[in-house]
């Protein structure tokens, strides 16, 4: 599946939520006592809470929060994997 399809499903008002989630994930990744496997869950929960706060409580808000948090994690992984490919080709 092309991730641009998922991006088009996310409410445009939630671009800030995606950015905040990216920052939260970066901070958590930089915090030694936080296990890596928990980061995705924390990011998605933050996204859901922010989305509910912005759009109000509804099942659609929960789904939008999951999409925003997931897209944030996906975006981070794309950048990380792209950088590792660049390092491998130089070395």
Question: What do these coordinates show?
Answer:
The chain is globular and about 50 Å long. The model has no long low-confidence stretch (mean pLDDT 88). The longest helix has 32 residues, at 59-90. The chain has helices spanning 3-9, 15-29, 36-55, 59-90. It starts with a helix and ends with a helix. Helix content is 81%, strand content 0%. The chain is mainly alpha-helical. Helix 1 (3-9) runs antiparallel to helix 4 and helix 2 packs antiparallel against helix 3 (36-55).
How is the secondary structure organized here?
Blueprint: H1 3-9, H2 15-29, H3 36-55, H4 59-90
Query: How are helices and strands ordered from N to C?
Result: HHHH
In the predicted model, the low-confidence regions spanning at least 5 consecutive residues are none
**Which structural class fits the helix and strand makeup?**
mainly alpha
| Average predicted confidence as pLDDT | 88
Biggest pleated sheet: none
Query: How much is the radius of gyration in Å?
Result: 14 Å
Approximate shape: globular
Kindly state the number of beta strands: 0
